[in-house]
Design brief:
With 58 residues, the protein is mostly helical. Helices cover 78% and strands 0% of the residues.
Amino acid sequence: MRQNFGRLGLLLVTVIWGTGYVVSDLALGVLNPYQLIAGRFSIAFVVILILFSNKIKI
């Protein structure tokens, strides 16, 4: 059972990594590289803020 979770995790990472490349390639047709990087960092910031909101003291 535990081995299946590991394989599922590897499959999930592979899918995310692969779609990330395709999405970046498509986005570069519309946005310039700086806008793409700013968007990626903004999304990462929001995700980290949500995941660690209980540990952040404001």
